[in-house]
Every structure is written in C-alpha cells, then in structure tokens.
Amino acid sequence: MQKFFVKNNQIENDIINILEDDVNHIINVLRLKKDDEIQVCNQDTTENYIVKIVEYSKEKVSCKIIEKIESKIETNINITIYQGIPKADKMELIIQKTTEIGVKNIVPVAMERSIVKLNEKDAKKKIERWQKIAEVASKQSKRDIIPQIGNIIKISEICDIIKEYDLFIVAYENEEKVNLKTILKENKNVKKIGILVGPEGGIDDKEIEKLKQSGAILVSLGKRILRTETAPIVISSNIIYELEN
C-alpha cells in the first residue's frame, strides 16, 4: 500500500487533504481512483491512518479516514550523519540509503578536502533536492518521519555541538586501535549519536585535531578502506543493528 505524508493543517475531522506533488503522483502515476485505499502519516504527530479516496482534482486528493493504525517502524536510535560534501550525485545515494536504514538527520559539511564548493544559491537548490530525495525514500521505506537535511556547516560548527550527543564518532582511515565494533560494545545504552564521514579526499589533519579536542571518537571501519558514499551506510546500519531495541 502506498504511503504519503501530510501535516496537521491538512487534516479536518475525518478528512485528509493531500496536496502538491503527491496529487499528480496519486492520479497520473499510480492511477488511483475513488474508493482506493492508501496509507497516510501525519508528519507533525507520526500518527498513521488507512484512508479511502473520496474525491480528487488537480489541486488535491481528499481522503476519508477508515482507521488509525499503530506503527512501530521508527528506530529508538537517533542518528545524525554529518557528511563531507562528495562529488557528483553521491550525496543523493547517501541520503536515499541512510533514510531507508533509519537515520533521523543528514547534514552536509564543507570540509578542507571537499572538492565541491557550493555558493549560497547553489547550496539552497541542492538542499531542496536532497530533502525531496529523503521524502521519496521515506515513503518507499514506510518511515513515519522524513529525515531533515540540514544547511551546509563547517567543522568548527560541529565541534561546538559534539557534547550534545551521547556518542560522536568520526570514520577515520588512519585510526589503527579503535574500531566501530569495540565502541558500540562499550556504549550499549546510547541513544543520540553523531557520525562524521569525510569527503573523497578524507579528513584534514587539522580538522581531526579539532574534532578530537572537542570530544569526538575516531574509529576504524575495518581492514578495507570504504568510499565516502559507502561509509555512512555501513556505520548507520551497524549502529542500528547493535543498539536498537
């Protein structure tokens, strides 16, 4: 059953109005008709409903609530990925796959070795596109939330908020002693986790030093060096596998 997201102001008593791009998707792509059923999630409350289409136009699809359903799809582990901005469309892959896994937030990071440099105008367009990719992936994977794509930040800004996390780890290819498996075994009860992954060129030594001084833990991901688009997928999936209950 297809899933769509709405907000509080789209729900009036037992009627839910679906708007904007979802209207075209329902009518012209899925070719759903009156009396067809879909699942709807209220983004503001994470409440889920089975609804029946009762009326539609080019502007909206009106649905009647049939039943409220309980959903247990969201993980109790709150993961935010801080991703050094990679080249080409790698960020899109990272957002899509980590959304499917269960990550809550994804923040692009302008780093010393980032090849891609975005001005304010281009950054705004990119973030809008990345947010849309997160929304589509959330629908596909039946999430109850859409991960938020943050504005582009710098390492100095990350250092200021590391202490807000129960655990903040940095994937670092030169780390030889501490690995992800050990860290997760030692931190079984953490719930709020930050992950930093560098861009293609890795993380600059000065950035590493700042992160360490701010309380970040450097970890190895194993014997093999992972690509920047592979690392956040591996880390987040391992964390949820080990810590979710």
Key terms:
single chain, 245 residues, alpha/beta, Ribosomal Protein L25, Chain P, 2 domains, seven-stranded parallel sheet, 7 helices
What's the SSE blueprint?
Blueprint lengths: L2 E4 L4 E2 L2 E5 L1 H9 L7 E6 L5 E9 L3 E10 L8 E7 L5 H12 L3 E6 L9 H21 L7 E2 L3 E2 H7 L5 E5 L8 H7 L5 E6 L7 H9 L3 E3 L11 H13 L2
Parallel strand pairs: 1-4, 7-8, 7-12, 8-9, 8-10, 11-12, 11-13
Antiparallel strand pairs: 2-3, 3-6, 4-5, 5-6
Helix pairs in contact: 2-3, 2-7, 4-6, 5-7
Radius of gyration: 20 Å
The major sheet is characterized as: 7 strands, parallel
- How would you classify the quaternary structure? single chain
Mean of pLDDT: 94
Total DSSP E strands: 13
User: Which sequence of SSEs, written as H and E, runs from N to C?
Assistant: EEEHEEEEHEHEEHEHEHEH
What gross morphology would you assign? Answer: elongated
In the CATH hierarchy, what is the architecture of the largest domain at level 2? 3-Layer(aba) Sandwich
Which structural class matches the secondary elements?
A: alpha/beta
CATH superfamily of the largest domain: SPOUT methyltransferase, trefoil knot domain
Overall structural domain count: 2
Q: Could you please say which CATH topology of the largest domain applies here?
A: Alpha/beta knot
Q: Specify the helix fraction band.
A: 25-40%
Poorly predicted residue ranges: none
**Under the CATH scheme, which class of the largest domain?**
Alpha Beta
Distance between the termini: 26 Å
